[in-house]
Amino acid sequence: MLGDTTIREASPTDIPEILRQRRRMYEDTHHTDSVVLDAVVSLSSAYLKTAMADGSFRAWLAADGDRVVAGGAVVISPWPAHPYDLECRRATILNVYTDPEYRRRGIARKLMQTIIAWCQREGFARVTLHASDEGRHLYESLGFEPSNEMPPQPAIVFLSTEY
């Protein structure tokens, strides 16, 4: 399964790798317009420099030796308080990606468990994400459920406060 794969928190020096994975994630979901993807990478690069510095974007990477093979991230955004959540912030998981030759080895599951544990330690009442068709089974197996939030699509899922 995981073998020698290790998971570590990303730093600003990892931005090029985070952007590579983000682009590949979109390519895997059939977004193939290279002009648009180039813009996504360029705009996201500027965003990541600021967001990683201020702590509103946290990422984790999985490596097989020196090669980074997977990753995932959390965006922390201000959010009004709710009766079930008085923190005035929300966590959204995104950029969960594994290189094709490393899939089905438990790496994405271990990344998600690492991210979820971090969110629990940070006191988030809920964590949201958008699930691709390929990732839906993994997220459901970790306790995520479809939400009733609209838009965008029924692919939004959330982790309940029960963790």
Structural account:
The protein has helices spanning 15-28, 34-54, 107-121, 136-141; strands at 5-9, 57-64, 67-78, 89-98, 127-130, 144-146, 156-159. It is an alpha+beta fold. A seven-stranded mixed beta sheet has the order 1-2-3-4-5-7-6, sandwiched between helices. It is globular and about 45 Å long.
Concise structural overview:
This protein is an alpha+beta fold.
Q: Helices and strands in order, then pairings?
A:
Layout: E1 5-9, H1 15-28, H2 34-54, E2 57-64, E3 67-78, E4 89-98, H3 107-121, E5 127-130, H4 136-141, E6 144-146, E7 156-159
Short key terms for the protein model shown above:
163 residues; 7-stranded mixed sheet; 4 helices; 7 strands; disordered C terminus
- Quaternary organisation: single chain
How many strand segments?
A: 7
Identify the CATH class of one domain: Alpha Beta
Question: Which stretches are poorly predicted, pLDDT < 50 over at least 5 residues?
Answer: 151-163
